[in-house]
Amino acid sequence: MHLIDNLQYANWSEKIFKQMREGGVDAVHVTIAYHEMFREAVANIKQWNRWFERYPDLIFHGTTGEDVRRAKCEGKTAIFFGFQNPSPIEDDIGLIEICYMLGVRFMQLTYNNQSLLATGCYEEEDSGVTRMGKQVIKEMNRVGMIIDMSHSSERSTLDAIEISQRPIAITHANPYFWHPAKRNKSDAILHALGQSGGILGFSLYPHHLKNKSDCSLESFCEMIARTADLMGIDNIGIGSDLCQDQPDSIVEWMRVGRWTKDMDYGEGSAKNAGFPAMPSWFKDNRHFDAIAKGLEKKGFLQKEISAVMGENWLRFYDENFGHKHLKDF
Description:
The model has no long low-confidence stretch (mean pLDDT 95). It is globular and about 45 Å long. Helix 6 packs parallel to helix 7, helix 8 crosses helix 10 and helix 10 packs across helix 11. The chain is built from eleven helices and nine strands. By secondary structure, the protein is an alpha/beta fold. 39% of the residues lie in helices and 12% in strands. Helix 5 links the parallel strand 5 and strand 6.
């Protein structure tokens, strides 16, 4: 079994890289941009290059599905780059291919707010994917960069699924039927995502869990089982949204960026604006086995557990990274 976590934004350190190895994590999709513009995102890539140089026995830069297999064989973790906002491409569609050449494999069309490309999940008016967004989807399809709609609105997400000629991903969110957070996804989205061959990565970020930090493993696995019934076992995986060791000030930066002077508390509260405590059964990269054991207890077959824990993401990488000739819309 290949173990893949398709979203983390930790405060990276040797300690965390070692925990990835202790947990047998073969690949992690890491966020290298929230609100950064192109040059700032490049600076973040430079920092990752230093970590790859400093910790070659623990991590390396992954760009293909084969890199996940290599990581497992060599006892390392392949690191895949992604953007949680389209800020790094600014207003220049040509930067998409440049970012792909730099190793970026995922990009969200929005991060909560309206962007040049689509509507975010916190906007009152949902106008869907924009004119530029349609062209960006086409270009992302061409170069093999995955469209991520984790922080997008209902209409934008459904638009992206319909417009894209390649399957999209929702790398870190949960079903709305289980917990009605703004960023969790409706049955309509989940059904359309599954029908189109896309993948949902289940989030462990407490604001997106039923009972938040007190969410039980049994409840989480029941949610996975119900979602598998809705979408199909081949269309689900893990995207933990782990923000390990980040200071609370990072939450403010994530929510506020440079777009407002006021604090946006998101789905937290004014009295508790920092990072919530993780569930007791999942604290860091060493605890993915708890999910696998929970699924086994829930009655999942070993093949199904392997699919959820990484094999589905690996197939998705194999099929969707890389340039492809596409017909015009």
